[in-house]
Design goal:
The structure holds two protein chains of two kinds. Chain A is an all-alpha fold. Chain A has 16 helices and no strands. In chain B, helix 3 runs parallel beside helix 5 and helix 4 packs across helix 5. Classes of the chains: A mainly alpha, B alpha/beta.
């Protein structure tokens, strides 16, 4: 009897934890995902320095700092714990925004953009996980509306010796300067390596793809989203290119020009603002690709990645609601 | 080589089976005292047949399962009844139990009568013997086996699946049973097949146990049985997923395997069926794996039902200091225990001691969709949890809250560490209560 009591006392001494199953967890965590995305953007940061030097680094630092400071202020206003500032999500927003800014943008504007991205793009909805639109793109859309000239003034990379005054991005050149007829369409090689004008982080497809492959291998982003965007945009532009190659650029040009790669692999794949089911993901991705195609070929703007992602973001709650997967054993609708 | 059969989605946690997979089953000596709950199965508790002071014999029936969904309970030792009182059940609630002081002599009950040729028994005789032996599903759900062996007339069974997946990490008891008792398992499966009139037996085994498949293969001669290796993935052994993996049949929502002509039995249950029919032996012991990084000498054991966890842990060298999590069952679906005086019951497949539970906070859901991509039932766990949190009951139900099998894949994979299964359990309980209220009684 005594031994019994001792045993009982001993088991209480152990102070065992009671919790409901499962009792083991995968090692991956949300902050790890965030920091992995930041790491994956480092090649793009490096090439931005290579092509645009300290301007790029300054914009990146200012934008990231502004995003994180705004996050702190919003969390304080909402009386929430400040620990979540370090979860990496605000830093990603600031960094992604910076990578989509023109190199000549005054740093103060970048700071304003990042602040709007966090406050109006994310915190007004209730913080991480609750926003409808990609916060970095909200910030960028705000800047485009507020400072249209600064946001569309381009300088060539330091590696390119050209006339600075009339410099245009490859897509601007295509749209406004009759590049196909004049034979001045930017060569694919330059587009791929990034030796062209444009936003600081989007010029080098190669650098972005290195990071993107890393994220796909780590299963951090869903490959279906970039695949859907690339396939639909390629299909769309191929059709028009085949109809009239004198007027429309080839599909490969569209894939590597402008913000397509950064948009498809890093913006559209934002987990919070992309659908959660397979069917939704394909629809979302193909929608983005088609809208980009329509804007680039027929719209007033040379580039359409930002607006097409923001537009498709609005459909995500709808997709999530109506395109839920079939439950095992659920009756298929009769054919 | 053909692609291994499997089900869509699911997860693959670290298997951690190497602690015990090579260790033969060891018979643990019976403890001085056993605590035998009268409710160890799905259904109504058994009615006690003994009182304090009574002499009981090994294998004597001490609790009678009167209801259809119930099972008899037998003494796992011989000795004197010390009490019939409430004890803490592994699920955390008090339950009536028979406490027996073991005299250590294992004097068998005269109720135990061997049968010289069990393969000549009729279906009804097999069911009768299984019911008498108090057999329940040994995979964990502990559904009374005699009920499972009596399918409704309008739902003929064509296939009996014997579940040797053992997809829970750490656990190896079923693996050892297949290696050490292949003949009993195959013959028990054959008896179950005859009881339900199925025309074939399929053994489903995960491909991390090829030796178990070979072991069973040697005893299949003359029986309409085959062995299928399945991909090692959790929850391959979950009934509905196993049926899908092997036969591509989908058990309808809210339905049972009967509905698609299938019966699933665990390998341990098959062995118990054989022993009940051939030896007349009631279910008084079971194989369990005692393992985990916090157990000094992990072992596979054959233990008497009613043995307290403390005795089992002591027999395995004790706990490493600072063990904080003792799980009865596997780490994905098992029950965490607060006390070590809780007994082993019929449905306990393992005892896993881990260092620590995950106690840190949750992050907000970032809609990464990993829970959706891994749910073996095709559910959207994060959305169901939101419906439950906001008490949207009709939505929670139509999105399949009640289809959740609580396998734990979503919570395992969630990078925000949200306690999804916990919420869904809460919601399921509430939904079932709501339904009971609504249905006219």
């Amino acid at each position: 009897m005594k031994d019994d009591l001792k045993d009982k006392a001993k088991s209480r001494e152990l102070s065992l934890i009671i919790e409901s199953s499962p009792h083991i967890r995968d090692k991956d965590t949300t902050p790890k995902i965030m920091y992995r995305v930041i790491i994956s953007l480092m090649p793009a940061v490096a090439t931005s320095f290579y092509f645009f030097r300290w301007r790029a680094i300054l914009l990146i630092l200012i934008s990231t700092a502004s995003a994180m400071i705004t996050e702190v202020l919003c969390l304080m206003a909402r009386r929430r714990t400040l620990k979540t500032v370090l979860d990496g999500s605000a830093a990603i927003t600031g960094l992604l925004l910076a990578l989509t800014l023109p190199p000549s943008l005054p740093p103060a504007m970048a700071a304003i953009g990042a602040s709007v991205a966090i406050s109006l793009g994310k915190q007004v909805y209730g913080g991480l996980g609750h926003n409808i639109f990609n916060p970095a793109l909200v910030g960028r859309a705000f800047l485009q509306a507020a400072f249209p000239v600064a946001m569309t003034t381009w300088i060539p990379p330091v590696t390119l010796k050209v006339d600075v005054a009339t410099y245009a991005t490859p897509l601007g050149n295509l749209k406004f300067q009759n590049a196909i007829a004049l034979g001045t369409l930017t060569p694919l090689k330059d587009l791929f390596w990034g030796n062209v004008g444009g936003c600081i982080g989007e010029t080098s497809a190669a650098a972005l793809l290195i990071g993107a492959i890393y994220l796909i291998l780590k299963k951090t982003i869903d490959w279906r989203i970039p695949a859907g965007i690339i396939l639909s945009l390629s299909a769309f532009t191929t059709v028009f290119w085949l109809i009239n190659p004198d007027r429309y650029a080839p599909p490969l040009f569209h894939l590597f020009a402008g913000g397509l790669i950064i948009g498809a692999f890093f913006m559209a794949t934002d987990m919070v603002t992309s659908p959660i089911t397979r069917a939704g993901i394909w629809l979302y991705a193909c929608g983005i690709g088609l809208i980009i195609g329509v804007i680039r070929l027929f719209g007033g703007l040379p580039e359409g990645v930002m607006y097409s992602i923001l537009l498709m973001n609005t459909f995500v709650p709808l997709f999530n609601h109506y395109l839920r997967p079939r439950i095992l054993g659920e009756r298929r609708p009769k054919k | 080589m053909a692609k291994k059969k499997t089900f869509p989605r699911g997860v693959h946690p670290e298997e951690n089976k190497e602690f015990t997979s090579h260790k033969p089953l060891e018979v643990m000596p019976s403890p001085e005292k056993v605590f035998i709950p009268l409710l160890q199965h799905f259904g109504a508790p058994a009615i006690p047949l003994v009182k304090k002071g009574d002499e009981v014999l090994l294998g004597q029936k001490i609790g009678e399962g009167k209801a259809v969904f119930s099972a008899h309970v037998h003494s796992s030792v011989s000795g004197t009844v010390a009490a019939v009182e409430d004890i803490i059940h592994p699920n955390g609630y008090p339950v009536l139990a028979v406490v027996i002081n073991n005299d250590g002599q294992d004097r068998p009950s005269p109720e135990i009568k061997p049968c010289s040729n069990p393969l000549t028994l009729t279906a009804e005789e097999i069911r009768q013997k299984v019911r008498e032996a108090g057999i329940v599903g040994l995979g964990g759900a502990a559904f009374p086996t005699a009920v499972k062996l009596s399918p409704p007339k309008d739902k003929p069974i064509d296939t009996l699946i014997i579940n040797g997946c053992e997809c829970e990490p750490y656990l190896t008891a079923d693996h050892r049973l297949m290696l050490e008792f292949p003949e009993e398992i195959v013959r028990g499966a054959e008896l179950a097949r005859r009881a339900v009139g199925a025309n074939r037996i399929i053994f489903g085994i995960e491909d991390n146990k090829p030796d178990a498949a070979q072991s069973l293969e040697r005893h299949l001669n003359g029986f309409p049985a085959e062995i299928v290796l399945l991909k090692t993935k959790y929850p391959q052994g979950a009934e509905k997923n196993l049926i899908y993996a092997l036969l591509h049949r989908e058990v309808p929502r809210g339905g049972l395997p009967f509905d698609v002509g299938v019966l699933v039995q665990n390998v341990g249950t098959a062995k118990a069926i054989w022993e009940a029919c051939a030896l007349g032996k009631p279910l008084i012991e079971r194989a369990i794996t005692v393992t985990g990084p916090m157990i000094r000498e992990p072992k596979n054991l054959l233990v008497r039902i009613g043995t307290p966890l403390a005795n089992i842990i002591a027999y395995c060298g004790g706990l490493v200091d600072h063990a904080r999590l003792i799980i009865l069952g596997g780490p994905m679906m098992g029950l965490a225990q607060s006390l070590l005086d809780v007994p082993i019951i019929k449905g306990s497949s393992g005892l896993v001691a881990l260092k620590e539970a995950y106690l840190e906070g949750e992050f907000p859901c970032i809609r990464c969709s990993r829970c959706v991509d891994h749910c073996p039932m095709g559910l959207v766990p994060t959305q169901i949890v939101k419906f439950i949190q906001f008490e949207k009951w009709p939505e929670a139900e139509s999105w399949g809250a009640l289809d959740c099998v609580e396998c734990g894949c979503c919570q395992y994979i969630c990078p925000s560490k949200i306690r999804l299964v916990h919420w869904i359990r809460l919601g399921k309980n509430y939904l079932i209560k709501l339904k009971r209220k609504k249905s006219p009684s």
